[in-house]
Amino acid sequence: MSPGCKNTVVPKTSEAIIALLVVLALALVSVERNQLLSSDITAWDDTVSKSRGKARPHFNFAVALSASDMSDEAIASYLEAVRLRPLYPEALYNLGVLYDRAAKRELAKDYYKKAIAADPGFGAAYNNLGYLYFKEGLVDEAITEYRRALLIMPLSADVHMNLAVAYLDKGLYGNAIRELEKVLESNPGDEKAIRALESLSGGATLP
């Protein structure tokens, strides 16, 4: 497949390909940037009680709560972290993630944008914002955000996959093929990308 192919092929299976790939995109909103050495809620609660004026313990407590599926409590702790440190990109981003999971899209978009404002190099926030736009049918806006994400993390197979889905939705099959090829450059064993490329090139048929 040539990277210079034009958007002239119109595969009949494009909707099936989008359905195949979009599952990965849906999973991306649950990704959180910071990892904890411990998710012990009791330990972090004790730390917070001793350091109420510091943002980081509230952030760590929120991550532990989120890991235990206590989303409302996690949101409250992230909000406290942001109150103490308004330009806290990880906390702002994770608020976007939790509101995204709760299908509160406007709040999620607002916090992804705030995370970007606090840290313009936060690639995952652009990606997740783009996917929210995609879910709303704002495909051009989604493409813009995915491209911004790729300026920061050009080797991200996830973002290339999301961009491929957006191009497929617009019927830009040549662009989609190039993005799927980028996915395979980063992750040669990605079966979804392989199957989608085969279908777009007239090879295998999707089930």
Topology, pairings included?
Elements: H1 14-27, H2 41-50, H3 55-67, H4 71-84, H5 89-101, H6 105-118, H7 123-135, H8 139-152, H9 157-170, H10 173-186, H11 191-200
Can you walk me through this structure?
With 207 residues, this protein is mainly alpha-helical. It has one domain (14-29, 38-200): Alpha Horseshoe (Serine Threonine Protein Phosphatase 5, Tetratricopeptide repeat). Helix content is 69%, strand content 0%. The chain has helices at 14-27, 41-50, 55-67, 71-84, 89-101, 105-118, 123-135, 139-152, 157-170, 173-186, 191-200. Helix 4 (71-84) packs antiparallel against helix 5 (89-101) and helix 5 (89-101) runs antiparallel to helix 6. It is elongated, with a radius of gyration of 19 Å.
Instruction: State the end-to-end distance.
Output: 23 Å
- Report the major sheet: none
Number of helices: 11
Mean pLDDT level: 81
By CATH, the topology is Serine Threonine Protein Phosphatase 5, Tetratricopeptide repeat
Query: How much helix, percentage-wise, in residues?
Result: 55-70%
Summarize the helix and strand pattern as letters: HHHHHHHHHHH
Please state roughly what percent of the residues sit in beta strands, choosing from under 5%, 5-15%, 15-25%, 25-35%, 35-45% or over 45%: under 5%
Radius of gyration: 19 Å
CATH architecture: Alpha Horseshoe
Low-confidence stretches: 1-13, 23-37, 203-207
Shape: elongated
Question: What attributes does this structure have?
Answer:
207 residues; 0% strand; disordered N terminus; Serine Threonine Protein Phosphatase 5, Tetratricopeptide repeat
Quick rundown:
With 207 residues, the protein is mainly α.
